[in-house]
Design a protein that fits this description.
alpha+beta, 662 residues
């Protein structure tokens, strides 16, 4: 895992441009604290290419794994990559790839030369890469199937094209006309002489491309178990110390158990004979801490328990939003961010995490109210294809803020395709029924049953069959409640009543989101020529217990509420649901609210499918017009940049969007 930043076709003074590129790339130094390299190429017409790599060395540390990468001494094919290619040894053997560079990403350039852009389908891993073919003038970039590695694309006013691991490098350069999310499961291709490139979807299983597809294949528990186990074993590839994130819930516990049991079978793993280290975090006495300790004791891991206070979490809010580059997922990101700092101090550089199972198998508590198997599957598909703006984004950026790589085995292409091609009737939650062993058909039943192996148990029964607990809840209810109380104090009733004037683009429905939107705007919107681009990368829409906006329609009471991502919002399901206050929508609402405030069924998620690519199912594209921000201004200190304090409230985005469904 690393940070990449590339600018291709840049015009102007090369000396000035190198300083410019270097200055912008410093903003992602946290992603690659181990080394820095830049490749510069100046063409005959004066146009320039800059490829910057900030390295976090996990595989082949030292000079043998340095980037930028080349296929030979001519540098005709020059490329940079962020991520891990788990099948690189197989690909080296299959295509007779010989190179002194031992980076797992080295295969990318050789495969491009041998097979062209469609080689990307052979990669098993998480990745974002940029290739410049200096012989033909072709530019190619690609991103993995789930968008586990963040990537953004920008378009220069001079015709240049920019790629970056994080948005913060693109927000205020005067040469950028616009920027957007590089869609997961796509590659970008621009041939010599073309002024615009094209996006091509390469990850195209039916469950992604056909919104009406409902699978009917019955899952085989042994097959499913072996698929998950293989995914974990493959992701133990590392030449440095690693650990696992253990919350005590099903997903993280399974990952930990598999790592403990199968570590010695993995290829090229660090410390094969050493015990696995596990980490958990929470406010003292939090549900996750208690559960994680039980699992760690049962599995024999070297367990580390990290504590934080609500006050420490609140202190981190501005930094969290800066690193996340969104106002969503903050509740869960704060503990993950604080935990990553502690893990770094212990000397670990990579962690395994359990993201993905809740989306693939319907693990969130709101799935209890799915009206049908068909709608259950469609919601799983919506959740999974949008992960690059939610949990996957949070997992990557919260950990990489401290130079920690996170790997998510449950989101391997093999696990995704197996789960999403399984009959959703097998995933439906039926708490009033039990199987032959007396277990209820609760959330993620398929995954639980696949690992219910009494002769050689992966987990104790009380863990394997424990109810889902949202991470932000599990680290301690005091954190979630403390954040809401803090927002109540920081945002006055008068400010909140006028929120539609302050935030015309989907006004926040709670003071918590009002506060987070203010922080987001200060970092990425206020005073920025392309502030509307920042907003277009963010998802909008009401959510209940982490649902999509579409699923809010499953329950009339949810539609009437302001929404809340806590699992406690699902009454009569979560054990603490009856005490949770799910506020009604309209409480304190200004009766003159903007007409742009959509009902859930109408707005069904203003989820940025950037550049018009239908990369997220059933979502809404926000396309914003260009133009300068008009307002009075004052100087605002920025992170290595000078910003202008003005009031941008999304008016241009509203004017141009007309929320057209993709």
């Amino acid at each position: 895992m690393c940070g990449i930043f590339a600018v291709l076709g840049l015009t102007g003074d090369p000396l000035h441009n190198r300083k410019r590129v270097y200055g912008l790339s410093k903003r992602i130094r946290h992603r690659g604290p181990d080394s820095y390299k830049m490749d510069v190429s100046i063409k005959e017409d004066g146009k320039q290419t800059y490829m910057v790599h900030k390295r976090l060395s996990i595989v082949a540390p030292g000079p043998s794994g340095e980037q930028p990468l080349y296929t030979d001494a001519s540098h005709d094919t020059t490329f940079i990559a962020n991520g891990e290619i788990y099948n690189h040894e197989h690909l080296r053997e299959k295509y007779n790839i010989v190179s002194e560079n031992k980076s797992d990403c080295q295969v990318i350039g050789h495969l491009y030369e041998q097979n062209g852009p469609e080689f990307i389908r052979e990669l098993d891993g998480m990745f974002a890469f940029v290739i410049e073919d200096r012989k033909t003038g072709t530019i190619m970039a690609g991103r993995d199937h789930m968008g586990k590695i963040p990537c953004y694309i920008a378009y220069g006013k001079d015709g240049s094209v920019w790629f970056s691991s994080e948005m913060k490098t693109l927000i205020d350069d005067p040469g950028i006309a616009k920027y957007e999310i590089f869609p997961p499961g796509h590659y970008y291709l621009r041939e010599k002489g073309e002024t615009e490139g094209k996006m091509v979807r390469w990850y195209d299983p039916k469950w992604v491309t056909d919104v009406e597809y409902i699978p009917d294949r019955k899952a085989d528990y042994t097959e499913l178990r072996e698929t998950v186990v293989d995914a974990v074993k493959n992701r133990l590839m590392a030449d440095v110390p690693y650990a696992v994130l253990l919350s005590g819930g099903l997903d993280s516990s399974l990952i930990t158990s598999i790592a403990v049991r199968h570590k010695k079978e993995s290829k090229n793993t660090f410390g094969a004979d050493e015990p696995v280290h596990s980490f958990s975090i929470g406010i003292k006495g939090a549900p996750d801490l208690v559960a994680a300790r039980k699992v760690a004791d049962a599995l024999g891991t070297v367990h580390h328990e990290i504590h934080f206070t609500p006050e420490e979490a609140l202190d981190a809010l501005p930094d969290i939003v800066w690193h996340l580059e969104t106002f969503e997922q903050v509740r869960a990101s704060v503990p993950m961010y604080l935990l990553s700092r502690a893990i770094k101090s212990y000397g670990f550089k990579m962690v395994l995490s359990g993201e993905g199972a809740d989306e693939l198998f319907g693990g969130y508590l709101y799935f209890h109210k799915a009206p049908s198997a068909e709608e259950f599957h469609k919601e799983c598909a919506r959740k999974t294809t949008r992960l690059h703006q939610w949990d996957v984004l949070r997992a990557n950026k919260s950990t990489m803020a401290w130079g920690i790589e996170v790997r998510t085995p449950l989101l391997s292409q093999q696990v995704c395709d197996y789960a999403m091609n399984t009959d959703p009737e097998q995933k439906m939650i039926r708490m009033n029924e039990t199987d032959e062993d007396g277990h209820p058909f609760l959330e993620k039943y398929l995954l639980r049953k696949a690992f219910d192996t009494p002769d050689q148990p992966y987990l104790p029964d009380e863990v394997l069959w424990r109810q889902k607990e949202q991470f932000s809840d599990g680290v301690g209810y005091d954190w979630v409640d403390g954040l809401q109380d803090y927002a109540d104090k920081m945002v006055s009733d008068e400010q909140f009543a006028n929120r539609a004037q302050r935030f015309p683009l989907n006004p926040p429905t709670t003071k918590e989101y009002y506060l987070l939107r203010e922080i987001f705007e200060e970092h990425f919107v206020t005073g920025m020529e392309n502030g509307d681009c920042a907003y277009a990368t963010c998802p909008f829409g009401k959510s209940i217990a982490c649902s999509t906006p579409e699923a809010v329609a499953w329950d009339p009471e949810w539609e009437k509420s302001v929404g809340d991502i806590s699992g406690r919002a699902v009454k009569n399901v979560h054990v603490a649901g009856d005490e949770f206050d799910l506020k009604k929508d309209g409480a304190g609402k200004d009766t003159k609210s903007s007409a742009k405030e959509k009902k859930p069924a109408e707005a069904a998620s203003v989820m940025a499918i950037i550049g018009g690519h239908a990369g997220v199912r059933g979502s809404v594209a926000v396309k914003a017009a260009k133009g300068p921000v008009k307002s009075g201004a004052r100087a605002l200190g920025g992170r290595g940049r000078t910003a202008v304090k003005s009031r941008f409230v999304g008016l241009r985005a509203i004017k141009a969007s007309a929320v057209a469904f993709a």
